[in-house]
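Friendly challenge for the regulars: who can give me the structure tokens for this chain first? No prize, just bragging rights.
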Amino acid sequence: MKLTGKIIFIAGVVCFMMTYSGCKKHHDEPIPITDQQLDLLSKTAWKVTAVTLDGTDKMSDYSSFTITFSGTKGQATFNYTTAGRTPSPLYPWAKTGTLTFDGTGPATKLTRDDAVPITYAVTATQLTASFLFSGNGYAARVGNVQGAWIFTFGL
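First reply, four minutes later:
Bragging rights claimed.
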């Protein structure tokens, strides 16, 4: 009888340990800021609501412009795709490309694959991106695309 009691006791201890050994710890790892920002950025196609170049309203040239972001959590670089581009206005955005979160300020700074630094702010319903573009522009003339751009997008 003593042996049976010991076996039952040991089996109970082993079952208890197995039951609680798989539980998560109470302190969850915080979600990296880049993953949080990517979640906000990639939730939908962003539709332009305002555009300025050196303080001048350019919304009439970009009224159908949208931008969509996609990427993989845990990665600092992700993709963008633009749509609603008409043949005429100059675009400071390529049709597709990549963006990289800045290592020192990923919540507010990105760098485009053409080395253009972008300052941005994103919430669940609005995205604002501002940058100084001095390149040749994409799919249009060269001269009118250079300067300080501010794009505001909504859902």
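DSSP finds two helices and nine strands in the chain. The longest strand covers residues 46-53. Your move, everyone else.
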